[in-house]
Write a structure and sequence with these properties.
Helices cover 77% and strands 2% of the residues. It contains eight helices and two strands. It has a two-stranded antiparallel sheet. The radius of gyration is 68 Å and the shape is flat. The protein starts with 9 loop residues before the first helix and ends with a helix.
């Protein structure tokens, strides 16, 4: 068998060459210590960066081309719109000029029927009061329709204006008077409020004074009652001790011949009694004086309480009387304002 050189396929050869170059590049990367240590393909990265820059540059150029094209088209469109607008303005001007020159309102056939100023061009039925065209039966002159109607109407208008101004001024004066009266009334109300508050304050102070006096009286009465109870307790203790002493020193044991009874020092024997002793009389008089002083103190406290209540009652009556007077004055002012 003879060896025949058959040419390889071009595509297959390219594939083989590409694989071979890729293998050679891989071997270079593997046997290159720098690439092997850093595990980076710098050449590939550089190629990728360069490709990215080229793509970005192409994108920018394409964008610039599109922007220039859009700008140019916009300018063309604006120029076209401007020319259309100018053409329309010129057409409108031409049409208006043609209508003004060739289609006037006065040139119509029915202008005499539709003339707006037709009545202005016609002479009136009467030019003045003594017009010779107006006879007795013309019915062109009536009362109030003479030539001086405008002057009379102006005079009447002026008179009405003067009357109106007088009414307006009178109304303003009435409003000022009403405002002043209202201010006076409000001032009076404020004074009444101040007086009422003062009376209320005085009433509160009077009630405080009465409560204070009652408190002082009750305090003094409580102290007096405490003293009285203490005295009664001491008297009872003294009576008890005296009873004990009397029992110890009674006639039952000592067989003395005096007037005291065995029932206690406050008891005496009727057959031997000759009257109270000086000490006993002094004690009785002292008790009577204490009772008189207590009665006088109670009467004085009662009098002060009655005076305080009377003062408070008079103040309330005075406040009520002043309130009635203020109400009557207020009603009188309201009647005056109402009548005005």
């Amino acid at each position: 068998m003879y060896k025949v050189d058959i040419p390889l396929d071009t595509k297959e050869a390219e594939v083989i060459a590409r694989r071979k170059s890729a293998e050679d590049a891989r071997k270079k990367r593997i046997f290159n210590p720098r690439h092997r240590m850093f595990a980076r393909d710098l050449e590939a990265l550089k190629i990728q960066i360069e490709e990215k820059r080229n793509r970005e540059q192409e994108e920018r150029e394409r964008t610039d081309v599109f922007a220039e094209d859009v700008k140019r088209r916009n300018e063309i469109a604006c120029d076209f719109q401007r020319r259309i607008k100018n053409d329309r303005m010129l057409w409108a001007k031409d049409i208006d000029l043609y209508r003004k020159m060739e289609q006037r309102y006065e040139d119509r056939r029915e202008f005499d029927l539709n003339d707006r100023n037709r009545m202005k061009k016609v002479l009136p039925n009467r030019l003045y009061d003594e017009d010779t065209r107006c006879g007795a039966a013309s019915l062109q002159r009536f009362d109030g329709e003479d030539s001086s109607t405008k002057e009379r109407i102006c005079a009447q208008t002026l008179q009405r204006r003067l009357w109106l101004d007088a009414q307006v001024n009178e109304k303003k004066l009435n409003e000022i008077d009403n405002r002043k009266a209202k201010e006076v009334y409000e001032q009076r109300l404020r004074e009444m409020d101040l007086r009422s508050s003062a009376l209320c304050h005085a009433e509160i102070e009077a009630r405080k004074a009465v409560r204070n006096e009652n408190y002082q009286y009750n305090l003094a009465l409580s102290v007096k009652n405490d003293k009285k109870r203490l005295q009664e307790k001491r008297a009872e203790e003294e009576a008890t001790m005296a009873h004990i002493v009397n029992m110890c020193n009674s006639e039952l044991l000592t067989e003395t011949q005096d007037s005291y009874s065995v029932g206690g020092p406050h008891r005496v024997c009727r057959e031997r009694y000759k009257g109270f002793s000086k000490d006993r009389l002094a004690m009785i008089r002292e008790d009577q004086l204490q009772q008189i002083m207590q009665k006088a103190d109670r009467a004085e406290v009662e009098r002060q309480r009655n005076e305080a209540w009377g003062l408070m009652k008079r103040r309330e009556e005075l406040a009520g009387l002043m309130n009635d007077l203020d109400i009557s004055k207020h009603r009188r002012h309201e009647m005056i304002f109402f009548n005005i």
